[in-house]
């Protein structure tokens, strides 16, 4: 009787392996790594990081763009390298390892700039070297790359560096345009002559450049205006 009952009883299926679904490269979560730093989690206007370079190298648009590209290269590749080595780096010396990786990348970027954009490299001067101490770089390594995979770390690096670049370029655009009437060194508002008769476009109508825009405090004021506009549009960023 027992044998018949065993035969008639239903056998429960045994699951040996459960296939784990692979996350798409550009899943919703991964896309947020690219989009959030542009608005809700911007490194300059929300995290308040990298302010020094926003003040120092935004007098002209060209060095601001080059600086943004340099930071993007350093943040993205340092995130990738640290993520690949995250399980091999002893916790006690992780900061030293991160600094060595970032310093090596900064030296490489500096040499590339000197080889292909020497004039801009001279304008940026020591600020390229100071990327090593940029809070955005070390912040992303500590907060993200040490705990996430290579692909997510690359996306995080690109997202945060683009968010940084957008603010840098906006500030440099208004400072150069209103401070000297130029963009990328090209006269946009007209030519400022010695006399009104020799001037063209807006300068012929009596327009004068705003010298305050060329001073570092004006960069801080512009960043403050951007922060105010961002919080006025996105109320959830306002602290209680």
UniProtKB/TrEMBL annotation:
Supply the InterPro entries for this chain: NqrD (IPR011292), NqrDE/RnfAE (IPR003667)
The membrane-topology field of this record reads:
Multi-pass membrane protein
A Pfam cross-reference name: Rnf-Nqr
Q: Where are the bilayer-spanning segments? A: 64-85, 97-118, 124-141, 153-174, 211-229
Catalyzed chemical reaction(s): a ubiquinone + n Na(+)(in) + NADH + H(+) = a ubiquinol + n Na(+)(out) + NAD(+)
As for subcellular location, the record says:
Cell membrane; Endomembrane system
Q: Does the keyword Ion transport apply?
A: yes
Main site of residence?
Answer: membrane
Q: What's this protein's function? A: NQR complex catalyzes the reduction of ubiquinone-1 to ubiquinol by two successive reactions, coupled with the transport of Na(+) ions from the cytoplasm to the periplasm. NqrA to NqrE are probably involved in the second step, the conversion of ubisemiquinone to ubiquinol.
Question: What's this protein's name?
Answer: Na(+)-translocating NADH-quinone reductase subunit D
Q: Which organism is it from?
A: Neptunitalea lumnitzerae
Q: Which gene encodes it?
A: nqrD
């Amino acid at each position: 009787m027992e044998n018949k009952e065993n035969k008639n009883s239903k056998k429960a299926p045994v699951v040996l392996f459960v296939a784990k679904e692979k996350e798409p490269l550009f899943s919703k979560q991964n896309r947020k790594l690219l989009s959030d730093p542009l608005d809700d989690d911007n490194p300059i206007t929300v995290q308040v990081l990298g302010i020094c370079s926003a003040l120092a190298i935004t007098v002209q648009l060209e060095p601001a763009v080059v600086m943004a590209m340099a930071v993007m290269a350093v943040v993205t590749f340092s995130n990738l390298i640290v993520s690949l080595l995250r399980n091999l780096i002893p916790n006690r010396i992780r900061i030293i390892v991160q600094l060595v990786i970032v310093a090596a990348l900064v030296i490489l970027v500096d040499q590339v700039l000197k080889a292909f954009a020497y004039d801009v490299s001279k304008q940026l001067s020591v600020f390229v070297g100071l990327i090593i101490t940029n809070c955005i770089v070390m912040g992303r390594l500590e907060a993200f790359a040490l705990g996430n995979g290579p692909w997510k770390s690359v996306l995080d690096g690109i997202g945060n560096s683009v968010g940084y670049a957008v603010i840098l370029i906006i500030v440099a655009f208004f400072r150069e345009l209103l401070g000297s009437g130029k963009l990328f060194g090209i006269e946009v508002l007209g030519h400022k002559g010695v006399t009104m008769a020799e001037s063209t476009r807006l300068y012929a109508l009596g327009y004068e450049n705003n010298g305050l825009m060329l001073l570092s405090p004006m960069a801080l004021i512009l960043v403050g205006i951007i922060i105010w506009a961002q919080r006025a549009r996105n109320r959830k960023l306002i602290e209680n």
